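User: Show me an example of a complex going from sequences to structure tokens.

Assistant: Sure. Here are the input components:
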Amino acid sequence: QVMLNNYPLWAKFHKHQTEMIITKQGRRMFPFLSFNITGLNPTTHYNVFVEVVLADPNHWRFQGGKWVTCGKADNNMQGNKVYIHPESPNTGAHWMRQEISFGKLKLTNNKGANNNNAQMIVLQSLHKYQPRLHIVEVTEDGVEDLNDSSKTQTFIFPETQFIAVTAYQNTDITQLKIDHNPFAKGFRDNYDSMYTASEN
Amino acid sequence: QVMLNNYPLWAKFHKHQTEMIITKQGRRMFPFLSFNITGLNPTTHYNVFVEVVLADPNHWRFQGGKWVTCGKADNNMQGNKVYIHPESPNTGAHWMRQEISFGKLKLTNNKGANNNNAQMIVLQSLHKYQPRLHIVEVTEDGVEDLNDSSKTQTFIFPETQFIAVTAYQNTDITQLKIDHNPFAKGFRDNYDSMYTASEN
DNA sequence: CCCTTTTCACCTAGGTGGTAAGAT
DNA sequence: ATCTTACCACCTAGGTGAAAAGGG
């Protein structure tokens, strides 16, 4: 009923334990979450949003080339954990028509971030997180009923788990980002030679 | 109940008869439409959209430094004339919270433009147009009732009239665009000298 | 010592009017 | 002759990881 787009890329990162940068002003995810949905009622209205929850109760650190646990997670961290898709609310037909992309979702470690009106997800560095996709029917008043589970669907893809960091720890992850994120093209090793070679 | 933002700029253009470029791939308006709204029901859902209609029944041409009529307008032109605000549908509270900007609305002369899924407004060159703002209550099924005028409000600002062109005709308009559109900064006369002067 | 923040060069992405060629 | 199209240099806007500086 829900398909995770760009699954092969997510799997590549997951194999090395995905890391996502968090900054004060907010940083996009890469890869970013994108889904295709089927099976909704075309005329019913839904809110679609991503929530990011702790994936385990540990604090993590990168030591000797590996991620190891290091005490308990701060579970009582405050801060927004939800990013409502900007096209919400909308009809089932709308959500099923094309991919639902969360490419502009931003992660931050700034607790006071959502005072400006850009919703960002507030995370804690060196904690492991699991994104979740929620699809919630909207009543005629436009109000969600989160207690009525029959009107809420939640989807989890373990391949999208990641550890929040302020700087990359595993160089394998850094290289995957450079290789696949268009905005990091300038850091690709062969970038200069691609052009110097063609000058002959 | 509805205020046109950036009114002084619109007035400057209007005094010289505003022109808007239309291209095959679509061109943004400058100035662009932006409104502030009050008086909606905070919990009711509304669609907000702009429609662009013929402002008069004439075909126009620019001759001897002035716009003059030149035959009748092609009123049976087909093509989409509506741009639904991307945040539609949404609550009255949402629409009243901040300015409603149509900065990404694009004008085109390509009748087959809306096959790709970017809604553009299709216009005919050398015709005069009047943008109109519509606010329509959405029923519980998410369907508009355009026949029930009590649920539709329409607002018209004569200062936003413009003639669609494929190339600017009046140099006064060109200069106003260059002076005020950030993307045209490279064409400002004083752009180079701003920097050469500071090199001393 | 480990983690975070700031700044930077370098890139993607795309919005300008000018210009010359094309179309009618 | 008049209007349209395609391409261009030049800009805005903002997303990258690297590196150095800052902080506890």
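The lines above are the inputs; the final block is the predicted structure for all four components together. Chain A is about 15% helix and 35% strand.
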